[in-house]
Amino acid sequence: MQERLKELQGEALEKVSAAMDLKELNDIRVAYLGKKGPITEVLKGMGKLSAEERPKMGALANEVRDQITQGITAKQVQLEEAQIQAKLAAETIDVTLPGRPVHTGNHHSLTRVVEEIEDLFIGMGYTVAEGPEVEKDYYNFEALNLPKGHPARDMQDSFYITEDILLRTHTSPVQARTMEKHEGKGPVKIICPGKVFRRDNDDATHSHQFMQIEGLVIDENIRMTDLKGTLEVFAKKMFGEEREIRLRPSFFPFTEPSVEMDISCMICSGEGCNVCKKTGWIEILGAGMVHPNVLEMAGFDSKKYTGFAFGMGAERIAMLKYGVDDIRHFYTNDSRFLKQFSIHE
Ligand code: DAH
Question: Which residues pair with 285 in a beta bridge?
């Protein structure tokens, strides 16, 4: 009996030391120390022992139990510790790992250019004005000194909705609307960005829908030199301080005199290249002194007030500024194109 108990102790402790996890350890505890375990089984034979041997065997049985219990407890501590360590190792955060980049959207390159131009003029005291994209023939043409049947209407092929309503062909109607709201009182100093529409076939430089930015200043004693100075500031801020400007005579029904502004080519600095078509100059916008008829129609006294106006295509400005060779890139939303202007990457 004594030998059997020692044998069981040895066997149990061997299994304990080999146990891989807490579950296995608990199974060993149940198997050896439980009521149906082999030790209990051995002790059932105690009745056959002599009165002398019985307490000795009892003491030995207790000792064997204690040894196994101790072994189990020690192993349990060891396994628990190992479990904690394993958990810690698995949950370790490597703070030196670079973070995953978060892909955020950003403003479209065209929006960016429009905002830059807006900011520039806001800095000069202008406010931003807006008008409807579906416009009355009156504001789009008539109030701008383009009565029905005027040949210059052909300069802008229009999408008519009814006989009197069309998709605006330029942002100039916002001039007429703003002046009307001022009820003959200056000063007026606005910049108006917006979508415009023309019956053009889309190609690298034409789009049936594009963005224009219009400027209008009306006050007493506004002169052509004010226009020139303003445009010069604009050109230098947008395209570099070394840019020069030149004004060429032109024609717009709503301005008199009318001009077109060129800037010295920023690619070749005037030497002559493909962008400036070997002329050294790039056409940027149309402008002029507000025609007295336009002032009068909007309720301004053209003897007291004068003004200047200008209008430009935002895509053209963006194309020149960023070297974009096809206007359609702004609308086809190819993310490879858009990402080039990302400020986040
Ligand atoms: N509205 C003209 C266009 O779309 C551009 C323009 C030219 C606007 C001269 C103006 C201006 O205000 O003064 O072609």
Answer: 261, 312
